[in-house]
Structure formats: structure tokens, C-alpha cells
Amino acid sequence: MNFPQTDLPMFKTASDVEKIEIAVDGKSTMVPKNVSVAAALLLAEAIPFRYSKVDQSPRAPYCLMGVCAECLVTINDEPGQFACQTNVQPGMRINRS
Ligand code: FES
Q1: pLDDT attached to residue 71
Q2: CATH number, domain at 23?
Q3: How far is the CA of 13 from the centre of ligand 1 (A)?
């Protein structure tokens, strides 16, 4: 079955979308424009996002809607930012811990 071609963004694949440059742990990384920091890091395979302060277990996004706090990262030198609630911007500096 052939599906009709569409320009709607939700039907584009990661390789089709415009990319922007960010820094992840100081390393230049190209990620899709107009996605959350969490989505960008997952697409860049930059996981885990952090390690638990309690037992040092690796952590990564779970809810992707601002509830679980498993996605906390440092964005532009501001620690404790919700990666799932922040849109990625060109030149953004993201550090995992
Ligand atoms: S993934 Fe749950 S708060 Fe961000």
C-alpha cells in the first residue's frame, strides 16, 4: 500500500527535519529543530541524563510531561532544568551529571 506524501511535521523522520547545533557535555551535536531538550538528547543517544544522588543509578526521562523529574539536566549553566519541558535552542549548552 502506498501512502500519500505529506509535509506535515509529525510525519517527517528525524533525518528529514532541519537541524541545529548544540553542545552536549561540551561536544558539538546536531539535533532536530523544534523538539524538547529531552527528545534531542535521546535522539543523540546521550543517556543517561544524570545519576541518582541516592544510589548513583543511571536516570533518563520517564514521563516526558514534567512530573517525574528524571530528566533534570544543566542547561546554559542552570542546573536542575526539566529537559522534557524545555525546547532546544541553537547554541544551547547542556550538561549531564
Ligand atoms: S521526563 Fe518526567 S519530568 Fe521530564
Answers
A1: 97
A2: 3.10.20.740
A3: 23
Residue 16 has a pLDDT of: 74
CA of 39 to the centre of ligand 1 (A): 11
pLDDT tens string 11-68: 666 567 899 999 999 999 999 999 999 999 999 999 999 999 999 999 999 999 999 9
Domain membership of residue 55 as a residue range: 19-95
In whole angstroms, give the CA distance from residue 70 to residue 78: 16
CB within 6 Å of ligand 1 — which residues?
Answer: 38, 61-64, 66-71, 82, 84
CA–CA gap between residue 60 and residue 1 (Å, rounded):
37
